[in-house]
Amino acid sequence: MLFRGSIGRACVRPVFAPTTAIRGFRSVYHVESPIIDDSKLENQILGRAYNKFVPTHGFTKQSVDLAIADLQLRPENLGGLFGIGLQVSDVVNELIMYHLKHTRASLSKYHDEAGKLATEGAKVRFYMQKRLLDNVPIIKYYHQALGRMILPTNLGTFLTELHNLSDDITYYSGDKSNDFAWYSKRFALSGAFVQSELFMLGDTTPDYSATISFMNDRVSDIDTLGYAYNSMEEWAIFNGISLVNLVRSQLARG
């Protein structure tokens, strides 16, 4: 069972329906727009830092400073570039958010391949696997990112991006509902994804095969059992408590 406790309620219908089924609802929430504007200088700096320096220096201001130097820019002229100045904590948060948005945007590369899969559930697993494997180049530093994401001042922003990922995955996989089941599936997948990321931190199997198996099991739990939440209040309680406690407890174990 993915989540236990009083806030989980079993659904009577499957969470992942065959993609050939006729759906009575169409999502009015999903917006197709550029996730990252690569024409902006700040994103060019973050992109260079992320691709070239984070794999060796982690999610640090040093990675951003090295990217600025690599692009032959003058740091003293970039004080307000990110809209928040160049304080260490703010720049690191921007770098972490770039990772989340960049990897979410990368899912669009796989639409043709995913289109060959027969069911919504298979597509969800496919996109989840692709997204998890995008963590590989920076996995040894990912605990830094997760630790920052759950800070009270950062939590709302990063939860929004996490749920944007879940929304994209369900939408790309064929779900177009906009009833309350849309919310249920969205944050159930968010929980499964975070659990899988935490599992991945300690995975030493070739090609992270154990992580992929773990993720498939979590998605199967959602598909088999299903979860509904009775109100937006329960949804907010889940967001504010469950994911934070999950990440904190796992990071505390090292």
UniProtKB/TrEMBL annotation:
Q: Cellular location of this protein?
A: Mitochondrion
One Pfam family named in its UniProt record: COQ9
Cellular component GO terms, alphabetical: mitochondrial inner membrane
Question: What protein name does the entry list?
Answer: Ubiquinone biosynthesis protein
PANTHER family reported in the protein's UniProt record: UBIQUINONE BIOSYNTHESIS PROTEIN COQ9, MITOCHONDRIAL (PTHR21427:SF19)
Q: In which pathway does it act?
A: Cofactor biosynthesis; ubiquinone biosynthesis
Mitochondrion listed as a keyword: yes
Q: Which family does it belong to?
A: Belongs to the COQ9 family.
Kindly indicate whether the keyword Transit peptide belongs to this entry. yes
Q: What is its main location?
A: mitochondrion
Q: What does this protein do?
A: Membrane-associated protein that warps the membrane surface to access and bind aromatic isoprenes with high specificity, including ubiquinone (CoQ) isoprene intermediates and presents them directly to Coq7, therefore facilitating the Coq7-mediated hydroxylase step. Participates in the biosynthesis of coenzyme Q, also named ubiquinone, an essential lipid-soluble electron transporter for aerobic cellular respiration.
